[in-house]
Specification:
The protein is α+β, with helices and mostly antiparallel strands and 251 residues long. It contains five helices and twelve strands. Strand 5 and strand 6 form a beta hairpin. The longest helix is centred in the C-terminal third of the chain and has 26 residues, at 225-250. The termini are far apart.
Length: 251
């Protein structure tokens, strides 16, 4: 009976002896309007240690923001006989539409490759879920191409030394969201790293949505695709006719 009680209490005692993260974010909801030029998120929080005692070894923080996953078909173009044509393609089932990571120190000094891969720490460790059945070398080349495109669009980013930790307890980081950031529900994951291991983690959600006229247009395009397309064609014809009429009068 005593052994059973000790076995039952062991997980509780272990949980009480582990540090805990209390994270927050400056904005839980971001509205995209016609004048949206991007946003800067402030992510901050505290590390709660058992009994309030700081560890003998300094802890580190990694903060990861992920956008909603989406399927992608990547097409590679090559120049043949003076023309650019599709030479190869690859399908990915689940690609984060946005990914940014900020760490208190360079990531390669915080965790080993295996831990980084398990927790998807770093752009090179994002699980892209390929669905094309390519040979490994070809698949890796296309994955690098996809990541490079996301980087150049400002949708994938890494910031080494981007997290500041004060007194070993309070931390904060700033992560920029570009103007072209996709809408959806984002996750802000905070990891406490110590001795090359993840010892605690916590998640907060951020909603990014279109607002005002942009939201109405997006909803119309999704819910009434035929009518939206017909209206767009009519507007284009009307603008073309008005432009031609104005040009004729100016002549």
């Amino acid at each position: 009976m005593k052994a059973f009680a000790l076995a039952f209490l062991a997980p509780l005692l272990l949980a009480q002896s582990a540090p805990r993260l209390v994270p927050d974010v400056s904005q839980r909801r971001i509205d995209i309007v016609y004048s949206f030029t991007g946003a800067e998120l402030l992510l901050f929080g505290a590390i709660l240690y058992p009994g309030g005692r700081l560890p003998t070894r300094d802890a580190d923080i990694a903060i990861v923001i992920k956008g909603p996953a989406e399927p992608i078909v990547l097409r590679e173009k090559q120049k043949v006989a003076g023309m650019w044509i599709n030479a190869d393609s690859a399908r990915f089932r689940s690609v984060p539409s946005f990914y940014a990571i900020a760490t208190s120190r360079p990531l390669n000094t915080l965790v080993d490759d295996r831990t980084a891969a398990v927790y998807e720490l770093g752009v090179d460790n994002i699980q892209l879920s390929p669905a094309s059945g390519k040979v490994p070398d070809e698949q890796r080349r296309l994955e690098r191409g996809l990541v490079d495109l996301k980087r150049r669009a400002g949708l994938y980013a890494e910031e080494q030394d981007g997290v500041q930790i004060s007194e070993g307890v309070l931390y904060r980081a700033r992560i920029h969201l570009p103007a072209r950031v996709p809408v959806g529900t984002y996750t802000a994951e905070t990891f406490l790293l110590q001795g090359g291991r993840v010892v605690a983690g916590a998640t907060r959600e951020i909603a990014i949505e279109k607002s005002g006229f942009e939201r109405y247009v997006a909803a119309a395009a999704a819910d009434r695709a035929f009518l939206y397309g017909l209206f767009a064609v009519l507007v284009s014809l009307l603008l073309g006719w008005a432009g031609a009429l104005l040009f004729r009068r100016l002549r």
